[in-house]
Amino acid sequence: MAGISLTPSAAARVAAIAARQGRASARLRLSVDGGGCAGFQYRFELADAPADDDVEVTTDGVGLLVDSMSLPLVEGSVVDFVENLGGAAFQVRNPNAASNCGCGTSFSV
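The structure assignment produced for this chain is given below.
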């Protein structure tokens, strides 16, 4: 998938979660839904296999899945896993976002 990537930190976190849950494969699905405080919100979930309209990139053996409807909104993004005093979470650095909310889970274009 051109222009979207999963950092090694995020890949390691997905692999650890998948292993804890006894999953055979480690894939993180990123989708964009309408809503949130800024208009769109990111949604993350583990997936066992890609759907028909998914595009997948792989980092360190871990897949990042994005559906065809969400892809234009996140193209060029980097999905990372960050830990700081505020907690630990997956984070999307999205060059298409005109603004982000304070919590980092919603954005506008």
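Interim note for the steering committee: The two ends are 21 Å apart (CA to CA). The chain has one domain: 5-108.
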